[in-house]
Inverse folding.
């Protein structure tokens, strides 16, 4: 089971890396077009560099950014990688800490599941609206709603992760949340006394 989860995690990371690479490549293209637009001879010599053909690059970068943020936070980022305020949480008894963790995980899961339907209802009208520039590249099939579908992947994935976290904590306790650096992670290599 762990090898399957590890493989899935690597696949999710690969997709995020591919989106980041695509966003970076289009960003470089956008800058190239922006700074070559004033030199008309470039567009005459290389018709594919005509600036009016690249209005879609900004929308594409914004689309990739939205997908990277929600994809990464929903499917890649671990619970302990988030910024948390745990002054009270770490200073209560292990039994109370366990129930704090279970309660908060269930509340997060339920809230995320509850917002899916109202959000989908609001997004439903967006199925009719085409993007201003991305349809020039991808065709008429892409709609504004398609751009934001990643939110539903995010909400479902995080809800599932927190339900599984609640189950794990119910069985094993919340002591893993008190991850403290070990002596090995704090050890600094000895320097030669003669090095300045």
């Amino acid at each position: 089971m762990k090898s399957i989860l590890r493989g899935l995690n690597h696949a999710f990371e690969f997709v995020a890396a591919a989106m980041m690479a695509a966003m970076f490549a289009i960003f470089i293209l956008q800058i190239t077009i922006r700074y070559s637009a004033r030199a008309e001879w470039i567009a005459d010599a290389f018709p594919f560099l005509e600036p009016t053909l690249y209005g879609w690059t900004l929308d594409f970068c914004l689309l990739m950014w939205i997908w990277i943020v929600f994809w990464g936070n929903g499917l890649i980022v671990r619970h302990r990688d988030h910024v948390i305020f745990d002054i009270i949480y770490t200073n209560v008894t292990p039994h109370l800490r366990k129930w704090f963790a279970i309660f908060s995980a269930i509340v997060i899961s339920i809230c995320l599941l509850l917002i899916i339907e109202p959000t989908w209802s609001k997004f439903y009208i967006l199925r009719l609206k085409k993007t201003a520039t991305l349809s020039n590249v991808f065709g008429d099939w892409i709609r504004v709603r398609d751009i934001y579908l990643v939110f539903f992947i995010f909400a479902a994935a995080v809800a599932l992760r927190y339900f599984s976290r609640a189950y794990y904590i119910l069985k094993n306790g919340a002591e893993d949340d008190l991850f403290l650096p070990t002596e090995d992670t704090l050890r600094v290599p000895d320097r030669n006394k003669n090095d300045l």
User: Anything to note?
Assistant: The CA atoms of residues 154 and 177 lie 23 Å apart. The chain has two domains: 1-77, 81-178. The first helix runs from residue 2 to 36. Residues 183-189 have pLDDT under 50 and may be disordered.
